[in-house]
Write a structure and sequence with these properties.
alpha+beta, 10 helices
């Protein structure tokens, strides 16, 4: 006999164990009896399979338990085998059974770190928006290909915004499992497309540096915008589509992100690791090429100054290309590294705005014209009101 809501009454908190751990009911409560028998010891143990009703944590400890008057206990019961979907229990007696998982209590959230995260993400969103406005409204040299930078801004702006809103309203979203799964799938696509555009930007930058003497004459026809868009978005879409078909239950974790069980998280980490490795290799090659160019450069001031600016932009590209995301694999709960990781990767929009907008002489001139017109307009308005 299975009791669908009995776990709300016979809660896992009635399972008394040593240590401060989180206890989660992983199955419905069931009762097993045989006619004309009492719940005494059996000559052979009885095995029964309990389906998991919640997400399985591989780091958790499972216990097959039975109800004894006022508490859950494990005497005479053991876990025979388990996977992410079900657990087989073996008991030497009949009773009312359930499956309880024990996990380490998660560390308490640091309010200062949460506040820093919120501020950094909002600042990053502002600069993503400013960069997009600049790319859209300002006039660029015909040889400049901004398609990758624009799409990095679009992908990461939408990804960070959706992630921020999801975490702020998680208590309302989480009960709706389908909505939570859809959000995690969209986040998967947006972040993957952002990394794909970082890879495209790395390739374009490598081509640019490789042809440093002809830096101002790189034509858009080398890689057309349409072709780049197909690569930037279709690869991410294919990865998400295949992941959804292969493991549709892999989306919609407690935080409305990708579930870590069954290795499904590698549908995100796998492509990201490949892209970060490629970008790091390209970045190293770019630095080597620039270093060689500087050594062989003639003592021509204008060309030297241009190359030094290019070197600075290339070093700043370390963050723009996402190479700083590698730091996330080495944080291991260290707060200092977490803060550095948080600041660097939430400010990709800031670096894009500084490198390609603020440090661009032509764009600065357009900024000055815009602000002059704005100031003149304000002065005229004030004069009209004063008169």
């Amino acid at each position: 006999m299975s009791y669908n809501t009995m776990e709300n009454l016979l809660k896992p908190d009635f399972f008394n164990t040593s240590g401060d751990q989180v206890k989660t009911m992983m199955s419905t409560v069931i009762s097993v009896t045989l006619p004309k028998t009492t719940n005494t010891k059996l000559t052979k143990p009885v095995n029964f399979t309990l389906k998991h009703i919640r997400e399985f944590d591989p780091s958790g400890s499972l216990s097959c338990v039975y109800w004894n008057i006022s508490e859950w206990i494990v005497d005479g019961c053991s876990v025979l085998k388990t996977n992410s979907s079900y657990t087989v229990c073996s008991c030497v007696h009949l009773s009312t059974f359930a499956l309880i998982m024990q996990t380490s209590r998660p560390p308490e959230n640091d309010p200062l770190l949460d506040l820093l995260n919120l501020v950094c993400v909002i600042v990053g969103l502002v600069f993503f928006s400013l960069a997009l406005l600049t790319f859209a409204l300002c006039q660029w040299s015909p040889g400049v290909n901004n398609v990758a930078r624009i799409n990095i801004c679009i992908s990461l702006l939408l990804a960070h915004l959706l992630f921020l809103l999801t975490q702020q309203f998680l208590s309302f979203i989480r009960p709706h499992q389908v909505l939570c799964a859809v959000i995690s799938g969209v986040l998967h696509f947006l972040f993957l497309s952002g990394f794909m555009w970082m890879f495209i930007e790395a390739v374009l930058l490598f081509i640019c540096v490789k042809n440093l003497s002809q830096i101002s004459s790189i034509n858009r026809e080398v890689l057309s915008s349409g072709f780049l868009c197909v690569i930037g978005y279709m690869v991410a879409l294919v990865v998400v589509a295949v992941s959804a078909v292969v493991g549709p239950k892999g989306y919609g974790s407690e935080m409305c992100w990708i579930k870590i069980d069954k290795g499904f998280i590698w549908s995100f980490l796998g492509p990201v690791c490949m892209i970060l490795t490629s970008n790091t290799i390209l970045f190293i090659k770019i630095v080597i090429i620039l270093n060689s160019t500087l050594r062989n450069l003639n003592a021509e001031v204008s060309q030297m100054k241009q190359t030094k600016i290019m070197v600075f932009k290339t070093l700043a590209q370390f963050v723009v290309l996402g190479c700083s995301w590698i730091l996330g694999f080495f944080t291991n709960g260290r707060k200092e590294l977490e803060i550095i990781f948080l600041i660097l990767n939430s400010q990709q929009g800031t670096f894009i705005f500084l490198i390609y907008c603020v440090l661009n002489k032509e764009i600065r001139q357009q900024y000055r014209k815009f602000f002059r017109c704005l100031c003149c307009g304000l002065k005229k308005t004030l004069r009209i009101k004063a008169s």
